[in-house]
Amino acid sequence: MKGSSYYWGTGRRKTAIARVRIRPGSGAVKINDREVEEYFPRQVWVNHALEPLKVTGMEGKLDVFVSAFGGGLTGQSGAVRLGIARALLKMNPDLRPVLKQGGFLTRDPRMVERKKFGLKGARARRQYSKR
């Protein structure tokens, strides 16, 4: 059972949440039981999500299993990125300087600003008519 132990990491971005499990393996990456290229149709999202593995040199050495929900695909790719970085940190604390320098351990705090009453959006106002 020792070889099949998982390391967990939770990532969040906007309103998306990703629960990430990693273990030593052949390099398979599954998001919601689908291949990563199938789940994220744009290569930008794939590269963004798997960047911590590339920087640490663990690409192809770990199996990654992700449960992602909420938000859109951009938010989910950012959540997967943070979740993978946190799981890598639990697996090997010596990777902290590399992950920290790349900015992978920082949760992106930007959220959608709420709509205010009396306005069309968060800040957009109605057009002024002089006459």
From TrEMBL:
Pfam families named in the record: Ribosomal_S9 (PF00380)
HAMAP family with a match to the protein in the record: Ribosomal_uS9_B
GO MF annotation list: RNA binding; structural constituent of ribosome
UniProt entry keywords in alphabetical sequence: Ribonucleoprotein, Ribosomal protein
InterPro entries for this protein: Ribosomal_Su5_D2-typ_SF, Ribosomal_uS9, Ribosomal_uS9_bac/plastid, Ribosomal_uS9_CS, Ribsml_uS5_D2-typ_fold_subgr
NCBIfam families found in the cross-reference section: PRK00132.1
Biological processes per GO annotation: translation
Family as reported in the entry's similarity comment: Belongs to the universal ribosomal protein uS9 family.
UniProt xrefs under PROSITE patterns: RIBOSOMAL_S9 (PS00360)
One annotated Gene Ontology cellular component of this protein: cytosolic small ribosomal subunit
Keyword set includes Ribonucleoprotein: yes
Protein name (record): Small ribosomal subunit protein uS9
Gene name, Swiss-Prot/TrEMBL: rpsI
PANTHER family assigned to the protein according to its UniProt record, in alphabetical order: RIBOSOMAL PROTEIN S9 (PTHR21569), SMALL RIBOSOMAL SUBUNIT PROTEIN US9M (PTHR21569:SF1)
Keyword match Ribonucleoprotein: yes
Gene3D superfamilies: 3.30.230.10
